[in-house]
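Researcher: Excuse me, tokens okay?
***
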Amino acid sequence: MKAVKHIIIALGALVLAACGNVNMVKDGTLDYDTSLTVGEAFENYRYFDSVAWSEFETDNGRDVVQVDGVFTDEYMTTQPAFQAFNGATLKVQFIVNKDNTFVLHNISIDFEKKDGTNQEVDLADTMTDNQLDTMLYELYNNEPLS
């Protein structure tokens, strides 16, 4: 019976530890806009149907928190660049540092094509840092992304 209690306590600690980095990012702020938490900005973005948070570790041991925002059907039909697709998910990744801070790591969009296949576009490959900052600014201000 004691062994079962120890296993349950250990599993609980693992779950809390995993949620710790997600919660740290969700409850944190970005330097250019400290009026909203990262979680508030993503979870209240009017062009997302749903938002999911996850965490994983890279091959070299970095902790990464990822937020996936699924765009609404309205957004998909009103934004010309998105009309050729059935759906799209914005994926934003944050690296969690050893000092319990985090930094933006990557932004991509996973498009669902009309034929059912997916195409992921790494926005860092196609946009400047200034354009990526503008996109996050738009998200924080509940505006369509340019």
About this structure: The helical segments are 2-27, 38-43, 73-78, 123-126, 129-140.
